[in-house]
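2024-03-11 09:14:02 DEBUG pipeline.ingest accepted 1 chain
2024-03-11 09:14:02 DEBUG pipeline.ingest length=625
2024-03-11 09:14:03 DEBUG pipeline.predict start
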Amino acid sequence: MKKTGLLLSLLTLLWYCGAAQTPVQTDLRSFLPAVGRIEAAGYDSHVELRWPAVSGAESYAVYLLRDGKKSLRGETPNLYYLDFVAGLGRNAVYTYRVAALGADGKQLSETPQISAAISDFSDEQLQQMVQRYTFRYFWDFADPLTGLAYERSNDKRADCITTGGSGFGVMGIVAGVRNGFVTRPEAVARLTKIVGALEKLPRFHGAWAHWYNTRTGQPYHFSEKDNGGDLVETAFLVQGLLAAQGYFDGNDAAEKALRDRIEQLWREVEWSHYTQGQNALYWHWSPDYGFAMNHPIKGYDETFVTYILAAASPTFPIDKKVYDDCWVNRKEGEFFCATDFYGIMLPLGKRAQMGGPLFWVHYSYTGLDPRGLADRFANYWEQNRRYTLVDRAYCIDNPYRWVGYGPDFWGLTACDALPEGYRAHTPGVGEDFGTIAPTAALSSMPYTPEESMAVLKNLYRNLGSVAFGIMGFYDAVNLSLGEPRSTESYIAIDQGPPQRDRLERLYEKERHPARTRPARLYDQPQNHRIHKMKLMTNLKNILFTACAALLTQGCHMTADRGISTDGARHFFADRQIDRRVDSVMRLMTLDEKIGQLVLYSSHFTTTGPTLPKNVEEAIRNGTCG
């Protein structure tokens, strides 16, 4: 304890030396880069205005100049304003002036007039727009000292940074490069800063705390005895770091150094310590209270990737029995759902909540690709898609008759509650209070592209003045409180997951450039694989990846190189996974091998389409594979 205390004191001193030079971001009014003159940009349904600060101004009045008249659109203390004008006319040009007002309300000065045009956006353009706005949370609004993400935009603790949310933010930076929002060197510089901060922050057997005070570098208590390592938040952070490690594969010194430093952080996480020597994985450990929180990580929920990473660790791996005995929570209705909801059979989830909140199928899959991922419990692509469709079907059914619920207003997950509080919203009694989180449907885009797009369009085009702000969609919206209301705030963990869909769409476009829209995932999957590799090699890869359970860098969703199999071979060479796979294959009959190559379809069938007859015959006579 004394040694730990001395180390933390030294780290605190070092942190203060750096913190004294860089102020903490506390002012939402001016977090965006300053502009030298008024600027205006038109989108599908709104115009964004930005202007320079005026000395002595307490607020700014935004005026629309139209038909020779000057009408007030709003007053704000910020240096920006989003004006939703589609109701005045689509595909039109709008002209503005902004007046600076003193404390007495008198005008101090006025900008020159400026114009911008709005025009109908395609689905692709709308997604690009939302991605660009959301990216601001992790780029412009990031803590200037560490580069890490703040827990939320409206936090009374202006110095609270988050680890799990920052992991999503790291993936957001990768998405930012892919989308052209920032350059590759800019992203590498920012990530180098983030990694440097993570190296300094106190860790607890290699794991980070949930929150830190960016001024002191010390953990914020999540609860009384939770002032140490948080293994789940660490997993969310590490999957982001591994995604960046896989993506930034250049040969220049900066990218090489970034990869090496991430590798060291990954190797230092002592996953096995958090078992307490038992066949269980525990969420928390504190230098003051040890394992007093006593919170085993049991499914089914958002924590799946914690087990994936713990199993994949090259230095402190856990045994498979830990997964079997702890994650696979055999309590009736808690892990195995096996229930039909609205004509959709759901394999896993909490039965009383029709599965649970949607973030359970988002957080672990920001890096882990569910396509083709299956074990004896579920095909995880099919599980996640069905889980999402159950949530949508419940909102359409709308048993409590909340205002607005329907095909274009659905998505129950953990978010700020309206009128107040924070909770995990789910289907079911006492779990649904009319609050919809935009992140829920948007983060589900890979599973339900058309259905999620309907929500995006409704939230933006019909509810934009309430639901959409300077960093994208606000955390939550409720239409049943007399008038439409939103939180007008943002939370890091809700800003991050929607970023993955944009990457997924980009990768699909690169693989199929002739397509005008992203392909449905699992579009005749066995045929793609038959023509690309020997079938038995593919079967071995499937088995190998399942045995290794390795999350490297998010496969297609988060990086250029899908290296889940090669990465697994690298990290598990010492554990002789190849030998295990070979032994499994020797025990399998030919029919079983053929069956394993038939993946589940995305249309609610429990088994996929059969192999083409000529291919099956080729396998049996030995001329293929």
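2024-03-11 09:14:41 DEBUG pipeline.report The CA atoms of residues 8 and 202 lie 7 Å apart.
2024-03-11 09:14:41 DEBUG pipeline.predict end
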